[in-house]
Amino acid sequence: MRRSTTARVGQWDLVERIGTGQWSEVYAARPHDCPRDRPADYAVKIACSHPSLAATCGQLLQREGSVATRVSDPHLITVLEASQDHGTCYLVMPRLHGSTVRGALDARGRLSTAHALWVARQVAQALAALHRAGWLHGDVKPGNIMVAPTGHATLFDLGFAVKLASPECQSKKVIRGTMAYTAPEVISSTAALDQSADIYSLGITLYEMLTGHVPFATDDPDILFRAHRQRPVPNPRRVVPGLARQVHALICRMLAKQSLRRPTAAELIWHLAELEIELFDDRVA
């Protein structure tokens, strides 16, 4: 693609690479007609061009662009442009500053209870918007949540989003997302998916933010599948003895094996807001 010599995609000048993954690369960018002394306040996400991955990567970016241009929420990533340059798909988004929750956990081990609840509540707001619009995020995890220096959280990476009540949500589903955060019904070949799969993934994420590790930690996929489907969630109070019982109870509801027992995103926002108020003094910047 031409960016190797022109450092340009469409009408966007690529300034520096700021992220890379299996499916795409992300560059800080500015409009081509913008003076070069202006900050690169945009992010351009470009599908991987490897021949064996290009088709899948392009589909993922197209899906992300389709969802993000239809669903709007302050805590959900915004896509300003979804286009192609010489056959390669790319997205243009506002550049997010800060650290992912994954980065924060790697640096600090775990978050304070109030900070974790604050982040989780903002992600729940993004999920509520997606669910109202008829979409499942499909890959909620610490690496897909960006937290700004102000504390504002943004849920991003919509490539695995699934249209609710579509054939993709029915039995014999393709397993997507990240296994450590995957709801039991995603693994099951008989149960259809609904919004509660995202709540389970957020519950795993909240557990990890509080304790520093996921509840079911194993590299063996078979053991991990059985744990999600059968094993009770380890008590986070064993790692965080001072954790409020109400927080533990909410996590247990979010991680219920039966999807109907989990709260909706709207209910979760209310519960998390209540807990935030109770634990406000523990919040950290």
Structural write-up:
The protein is α+β, with helices and mostly antiparallel strands and 285 residues long. It has helices at 3-6, 54-68, 101-108, 113-132, 184-187, 196-211, 221-230, 245-254, 265-278; strands spanning 8-9, 12-20, 24-31, 42-47, 81-85, 88-94, 99-100, 135-136, 145-147, 153-155, 162-163. The chain has two domains: 3-94, Phosphorylase Kinase, domain 1 (2-Layer Sandwich); 99-282, Transferase(Phosphotransferase) domain 1 (Transferase(Phosphotransferase), domain 1, Orthogonal Bundle). The strands form three sheets. Strands 1-2-3-4-6-5 form a six-stranded antiparallel sheet. The radius of gyration is 19 Å and the shape is globular. The model is unreliable at 1-6 (pLDDT under 50).
Structural class comes to alpha+beta
CATH class of the largest domain reads: Mainly Alpha
CATH architecture of the largest domain: Orthogonal Bundle
Assembly of the depicted chains: single chain
**What coarse outline follows from CA principal-axis ratios?**
globular
How much of the sequence is in beta strands?
A: 15-25%
Order of helices and strands: HEEEEHEEEHHEEEEHHHHH
Layout of helices and strands, plus pairs?
Blueprint: H1 3-6, E1 8-9, E2 12-20, E3 24-31, E4 42-47, H2 54-68, E5 81-85, E6 88-94, E7 99-100, H3 101-108, H4 113-132, E8 135-136, E9 145-147, E10 153-155, E11 162-163, H5 184-187, H6 196-211, H7 221-230, H8 245-254, H9 265-278
Antiparallel strand pairs: 1-2, 2-3, 3-4, 4-6, 5-6, 7-9, 8-11, 9-10
Helix pairs in contact: 4-6, 4-9
